[in-house]
């Protein structure tokens, strides 16, 4: 089953509730929540307060993607705000194992992500500890960038490793996912597709999600 996670970064924040209602009513599986610190990535986005406000009406799982250097102190605030998944970047954390332990202690699912230029071997020690691997198919920081086809090989490798080692992580892909790239990543083995600019501001996001799942 392919899941679609609209990336709220591409929403019109002046109408955030309407945007989220529309995505949920259109059949979104998860909501993807991009947190940026202006250091690990140049851009800034939002923190736990907006998440806890959103949780008053969001009824699908929230997938928090932390593009933040050493965000250990933010794990509990995001858990309390209502996150279901918290994903950290391998490049941003000195000791990822400590993060996964704390995320699990807080009762949530944990994920690991890596930039397009970071070697897959950097996340190999954590494959049996995570619930999700987030493959970046653009340089993190902004919505609306073009898909980097190098991600396909990574998705295939992670799919094969999951088979070979009998593991159970989800493979999520983030960046440049639209109706042309969705079939490529699903064929490569992705389970969860993050999509921002391909869904928000579009006439019929429900139809686009349905077409992406096919
Ligand atoms: C980029 C973010 C993505 C972004 C995706 O750093 O992690 O989630 O919002 O946007 P699109 O789908 O427009 O590439
Ligand atoms: Zn993201």
Main beta sheet strand tally, sense and closure? 8 strands, parallel
Amino-to-carboxy terminus distance = 10 Å
> Which overall shape is indicated by the principal axes computed on the Cα atoms?
globular
Rounded mean pLDDT score:
98
Q: Please identify the structural class as seen in this structure.
A: alpha/beta
The total of helices stands at 7
Helicity, in percent?
25-40%
Instruction: Write out the distinct hetero groups bound to the structure.
Output: D-xylitol-5-phosphate, zinc ion
Rounded to the nearest angstrom, the radius of gyration is 16 Å
Strand content: 15-25%
Query: What is the number of beta strands?
Result: 8
Major sheet strand order:
1-8-7-6-5-4-3-2
Give the uncertain stretches in residue-range form.
none
What series of H and E elements makes up the topology?
A: EHEHEHEHEEHEHEH
Please characterize this protein's 3D structure:
- This protein is of the alpha/beta class.
- It is 32% helix and 19% strand.
- Strand 7, helix 6 (182-188) and strand 8 form a beta-alpha-beta unit.
- Helix 2 runs parallel beside helix 3.
- The N and C termini lie close together (10 Å).
- D-xylitol-5-phosphate (DX5) binds at residues 7, 9-10, 32, 34, 65, 138, 140-141, 143-145, 174-177, 194-198.
Write a concise keyword list for the protein shown above.
alpha/beta, globular, binds D-xylitol-5-phosphate, 214 residues
Summarize, please.
With 214 residues, the chain is of the alpha/beta class.
Topology:
Layout lengths: L2 E4 L9 H10 L5 E6 L11 H7 L7 E6 L4 H10 L3 E5 L6 H10 L3 E6 L17 E5 L13 H15 L5 E5 L7 H7 L3 E4 L9 H9 L1
Parallel strand pairs: 1-8, 2-3, 3-4, 4-5, 5-6, 6-7, 7-8
This protein binds D-xylitol-5-phosphate and zinc ion.
Zinc ion binds next to strand 2.
